[in-house]
Structure formats: C-alpha cells, structure tokens
Amino acid sequence: PLPPLPSQPHLHSLSHTGSVTSAKNLPLPELPNTERRPSSPRLSISLSQSSLLWRELEDVRYSPDLELLTEDQRRLQEVRFEVVTSEASYCRSLDIVVDHFVKSKQLGQLLTTQDKNWLFSRLADVRTISRRFLSMLEQRMESDIMRFTVCDIIAEHCPRFRCVYVPYLTNQSYQDATYQKLMNGNPGFKQVVETLEKSQVCERLPLRSFLVLPFQRITRIKLLVQNIVKRTTPGTEEATHAIRALKLLEKMIRESNESISQMKNLESLVALNSKVNFECKTLPLVSQSRRLVREGAITKLSNSLKEPEKSIYLHLFNDYLLFSVPKEGGRFTVINHYPVTELCAEDCPVKLDTLQKNLFR
C-alpha cells in the first residue's frame, strides 16, 4: 500500500526559482467555448487517417510546387506532417479517456477524491494543452501545406507542456498503485471499468493504455523533432527552431525524471518514518532535501572477550547518519544520530580472526 503523503509541501507546490514546479503558475491556454475549433476540410482526411502520408494529400499531390521539392525536402515535410497527424490521433485518444472514463458518473461514485486525483492526475489539463497545440499546428499547415514548419510552435508550447507533463509523469507510481489497489480491492470499480472498456469508442483498448499516453507522447514528439533536426539544413531559421525545441523537450524529460526520483525518495522517507522510534532526540526524517544514500546492518566489535558483539543498523542519508537497533516487523529503534559533517571514518588496524564483513569499533 502507498504511504500517506507527508504534511510537507508537495513537490509540485514548491516555488523556488528554477524548480520543476515553477511552470505550474503558467496559465492554461483558454479555448473559445472550451472546444477546439473543427479541422478544416483540407485536414479532415489526414486527421481521420493517421497512416496517410503528406504526399498523398490531394492538395499536395496535384500541386505544381511538389516537383520543385527535392526528395530530402519531401521527407522533411512527411516528418512535419507526422507531428500534426500523430497529435490529432493523440487528442482523439485524450477525448476518449477524459469524456468516457474521467467524466463517467459510475466511476465517480466509486472513487474518493484522492483516488480520482491519483488515478487520472491532470489528464483534463493535458487535453486542454494538446487541443491548443493541435489547433496551432493545423493553422500553420493550412497557411502553406507545401512548406509548413512546426518546431517554433513546439518550442513555444514547451513551457505549457512542462506545467502538465512533469506533474503527470511524476504521479506515475501513485497512478499504477491506485489502479492495482482499486482493481484488486474494489469489485464495483473493476466491473465498471471493464464495462466502459467494451464500448466501441475504446476500440478494444483498456483504460491502462489510455493512462500511459502522455508518457508515450512526450517521447514521440522528441523523436520526431530529432528527425527534423537531422533533415533540416544547418544554419537555417527552421534548424534554429528545431534545435531549440529539442533542447526544451530534453530538459523537460530530464526534469520529469528528476521529479520522479524526488517523489520516490520522499515516499521512502515517509515509509521509513513510520517504522522508527527514537530513544534519543527525535529527528524528523521527511524532508525535501534529504535522500537515503545507503542502509544496512553492521557488527560492533567488542573491546574484550567478555563484552558481546552488538549488531547495529545504519541509515546513511546525505546529511545524517542514524544508528538503530532492528526490531520485529521491520521496525527500528534509533539509539543515536549524527550530522555527517561531524563524522569521520578510519581503517581499524586490528588483525581479525574472522571473515565476517561490515565490522566497526
């Protein structure tokens, strides 16, 4: 089971400069009447058939400008076109998961507010961002279907991608655990989910496949931009936009990974904090800046034959070292703790008649 969240600021509520969460303050783009504008007739086929190639579009196929493009330029347009069509397909899938699952009254009656937040995270916000992104891609494509570009739009949207994708990706462990908990322990939830999954709108795809879409999408956009960078003439304006977009996407993915690590570390601190008792002065273990470096049992050597050896368990954090005595049920009694700045370790120049490891005096 997941440990309860600590009474500490959530990772995404921190506001220190340059933090992963600073983008949370960015306003979400507003769409007229909260609906994405309909696709133009020119794009209706491409958006309904994601396997269609750019060169197969009627406006492209019969354009006299097609013969003026080199094969490399045509391949570059195909990659740009794939950015648009794959985003359209992604938005359709987001519509399904939000409208069919997130807004399901049957599911809503079975979920607590906490479970719903952990299970669906910010999917509605992800959809809002993606709709606006797709709308701008469509407008750009309509303006010049033969030579449209996309990387400047991607770069422009990266700050807004960041404000929804970083929290969503960070929530993954809670999302997975919540889903498993509900499927195994809530028969009503399992029944409703399986019923919803049988709907034709899901196209035989399970809920889990929709929940992982944001993870897959941000990676795919990065791969498409990498392909554009390779095919774009160096030194051109489009190359500059492509390189900038790629760097922003890589930074966002890196920040997401760091945020995931921070969340997992926080979870481990919360779990450990529930297992320790202090015989000495209490040390609050849960801290945003603290991380567990290493832990394990060691044996304290006696100074005489009469004194028995003592087993001690160490928890080494980046800022403190805890000395504990293991108890039943995986619990620990902390007998002392020291700041790491006050510690030093030295080799013990004593000949030992034992092969036992992890000894100290």
Q: Quick summary of this structure?
A:
The chain has helices at residues 41-48, 58-61, 71-102, 105-110, 113-120, 123-143, 151-170, 172-185, 187-197, 207-211, 213-231, 237-273, and strands spanning 276-278, 292-300, 310-317, 320-326, 332-339, 359-360. It is α/β, with parallel strands linked by helices and 361 residues long. Helix 3 packs antiparallel against helix 11 (213-231) and helix 6 runs antiparallel to helix 7 (151-170).
Question: Your description of this structure?
Answer:
The chain starts with 40 loop residues before the first helix and ends with a strand. The protein is elongated. The protein contains 12 helices and 6 strands. It has helices at 41-48, 58-61, 71-102, 105-110, 113-120, 123-143, 151-170, 172-185, 187-197, 207-211, 213-231, 237-273, and strands spanning 276-278, 292-300, 310-317, 320-326, 332-339, 359-360. The protein is of the alpha/beta class. The longest helix is centred in the last third of the chain and has 37 residues, at 237-273. A 6-stranded mixed beta sheet has the order 1-5-4-3-2-6. The model is unreliable at 1-42 (pLDDT under 50). Helix content is 51%, strand content 10%. The chain folds into 2 domains: 11-273, Dbl Homology Domain, Chain A; 277-360, PH-domain like, CATH 2.30.29. This is Rho guanine nucleotide exchange factor (GEF) 5. One of its GO terms (biological process) is intracellular signal transduction. Keywords: Guanine-nucleotide releasing factor.
